[in-house]
Amino acid sequence: MCWLAVRSLSMKDNRLVRDTIDEKLALPVGVTLDRFIKWNQQDFPFATGELSQLLRDIALAAKIVNREVNRAGLVDITGASGAANCQGESQQKLDVIAHIRFMRALTNGGEVAGIVSEEEEEILYTGNDQARYVVAIDPLDGSSNIDVNVSIGTIFSIYRRISPLGTPVVLDDFLQGGTAQIAAGYVLYGTSTVLVYTTGRGVNGFTYEASLGEFFLSHPMIRTPEDGAIYSVNEGNLPAFPGGIRTYIDRCRERNYAARYIGSLVGDFHRNLLKGGIYLYPPTAKAPQGKLRLLYECYPLAFLNEQAGGAASNGFQRLLEVPAQSVHQRCPLYIGSPRMVREVEEA
């Protein structure tokens, strides 16, 4: 009798397991990035698939960089490379690797005529002179956090070139201004790898499923909260900030806002985009123009944040309307929930 009871229980458990497996198999896998791009191709009547392919090329490079980041501690690719980039900043080994991966993907994809990268002083010519697009990119933002396993990211901005097809790209192709961007986004390499982008019709996020090698839609039509209770700033520089910014930070403290700052622009921005908050990088006496780069850090995140209902400013004007004068131009940045950004502008 006891044996029969155990056998009956075992059969019941097996049925439960099978039912659970059947339910899971019945669930949809989800919408892949590739399928999502194809579904939305019709939003660009002037393009014949080139922009879609360009976004796929970025996703491919992101998968490769994700692999390199995940195994960095095992194959000795953490730490400084011993060289400096064009802005005099120490390059990490992964900075160099990410730069190479994205340059190869964008060049071999054939849809990009020229690239501006944080890691190179001059425009990179791909040889694809018939291509319609140029890209400004920070291949690996927050790379100083690599050695301590903190989230890092990639930031990119895409423009439709204005120089004639069949000729090499020119500086003006990259200095069209923030409002001329046709697509922008970022990749966050963290507890999961997430690609978030906009083509001017809302913001969507995709999470990488490594076992399938695919990005799946995980954050459809992201909307950032109108207000927030998080402020992200390096308070170690507080004495050097302008008086209005110090006053605003004091208000944040008085209101018991949460201070959240990890020193990785993509990581801090992504959290505030989803939860509501503001990221601040003010000018200082040492860096009166700010430290962040306008073309491949501030512009793309400002474009994306506005598409999600947020706001971005240099402290005095809408950031997307700040004129671009050089490819490595720096700019103060206040970005996040619109009410918080407006209060900073009024401080």
Using the coordinates above, name the CATH class of the largest domain.
Alpha Beta
The CATH superfamily of the largest domain is: Fructose-1,6-Bisphosphatase, subunit A, domain 1
For this structure, the CATH topology of the largest domain is Fructose-1,6-Bisphosphatase, Chain A, domain 1
Oligomer: single chain
Mean pLDDT figure: 89
Domain Fructose-1-6-bisphosphatase class I N-terminal: 32-220
Protein name: Fructose-1,6-bisphosphatase class 1
Main location: cytoplasm
GO cellular component, one term: cytosol
What does this structure look like?
This protein is of the alpha+beta class. The chain has helices at 2-26, 33-39, 50-70, 93-109, 243-254, 265-275, 294-307, 338-346; strands spanning 80-84, 90-92, 112-117, 124-125, 133-141, 152-160, 183-189, 193-198, 203-209, 214-219, 230-232, 258-259, 278-281, 311-313, 333-336. The strands form 3 sheets. It has an 8-stranded mixed sheet, with helices on both faces. Strands 12-11-13-15-14 form a 5-stranded mixed sheet, sandwiched between helices. The longest helix has 25 residues, at 2-26. A hairpin with a 6-residue loop joins strand 3 and strand 4 (124-125).
